[in-house]
Structures are given as C-alpha cells and as structure tokens.
Amino acid sequence: MIGKITGRIDYRAADHLLIDVQGIGYLVYCSERTMAALPGVGETVALFTDLLVREDLLQLFGFTTLVEKEWHRLLTSVQGVGAKASLAILGTLGPDGVSRAIALGDWNAVKAAKGVGPKIAQRVVLDLKDKAPGVMAMGGTVADATGETAAQMVETQVARSSTPTGASSAQADALSALANLGYAPGDAAGAVAQAAGDAPDAETPALIRAALKLLAPKG
Hints:
By secondary structure, the protein is of the alpha+beta class. It is 54% helix and 18% strand. It has three domains: 4-64 and 141-159, CATH 2.40.50.140; 66-136, Orthogonal Bundle (DNA polymerase, domain 1); 161-212, Helicase, Ruva Protein, domain 3, CATH 1.10.8. The protein has helices spanning 32-37, 66-75, 83-103, 107-111, 118-128, 132-136, 142-146, 148-160, 165-180, 185-198, 204-215, and strands spanning 4-12, 16-21, 24-29, 44-54, 57-63. Helix 10 (185-198) crosses helix 11 (204-215). It holds the Pfam family HHH_5.
C-alpha cells in the first residue's frame, strides 16, 4: 500500500500530476481544489495517497491532509460514489465543507458537485452522517507526517488553498471540547459545523461559545 509520496513534479494536467520519486514516476490524481493548491512543475510536493486496485487498473489519488484522504475513503464506500465523484465533491466543497455539509445533513451542498445527483447526495449524507464527528476531530497535514522540510513545502500549498488549515484545527478542538462536556457526537458535530459556517475564521473559543448557544435548549 502506498500511503504517502514525496518527490518532484514532472508535469501537471487538469486532474493529475506526474511525481518523480528517485527516478520512478507516479501518476497521482487529485481534486480540482487540491490541484490548485499544489506547486508548479519542477518543485517538490508531498501528498498522502490512496491506492485504488482493480483487476485492470492501479490508480493513485493524492491529498494534502489526512482529513481529505479520510473523506475520500468514506465517500467511495457509499454505493454509487466512485473515485471521480468523490474528487468532484471534495473539489467543490473542500474537506471542511464536506464535514459541514454531512454533519448538517445538507445534501444540496453535496449535490452541487459535478456529476452528483440528488439521490446520490442524499445517500452520502445518510450513510456518512455518523462518521462526520470522527473525521472533523482528525488533525494532520503532510507537514505533520514528514517533518520540517515537507512542512515548508506544504506551507506554500496551504497558502494557495482557499481552505485554511487553522479552520480545520479549530473545529476539531471545539468538537473535542463539546465531547468532553458530554454532548452526543452527532449533535456536537452539527453545532460546530453550523458555527464554523457562520464564522469561517472563528478560533476555537468562539466556535465553542457559538456551538453551545446552538445546543442550548430552546424555549
């Protein structure tokens, strides 16, 4: 199993790139959002990877964070969702957007991805809603797994990305705090997702306060 690749980009296409790892070239497919965040040809890149194995096909998919990789794994476990649809969803929403949409049961957001119809979008939300808290609590980028040099490379990638890593960390910390307070994982995930959607740049304390207000009994 190939779980991570670090090497030089030999060329880029619309949905994949060729990474040279000590003279061996690996074709790695990525979401549109991830492709936009990666450096140019000739530069070094580090990606988590997932290997698709079929009788007539071996295909690698690349991700800059463990959260994105985990959502790809979960999305492709849903009946009717292949790798192409998973990358379309991740490319449209980003991993944090997928977390929010599924935690809130917002299948219309999932349906916005190219090639994803309403039935598939509803199935994704229904099948994965209980998985959202665990994924939201995950941390980890390629920087965490590869040390200082890779961290510097990924800083460039993250700077080009429209979804800041700090937002994901704040959501995970807020979710952990609510779990420690005894809130059910599904309720906590929904509240944190809604709070993060209302204030994308909010830090952990603000997210916790906003989520607690949402979880407070009405009446």
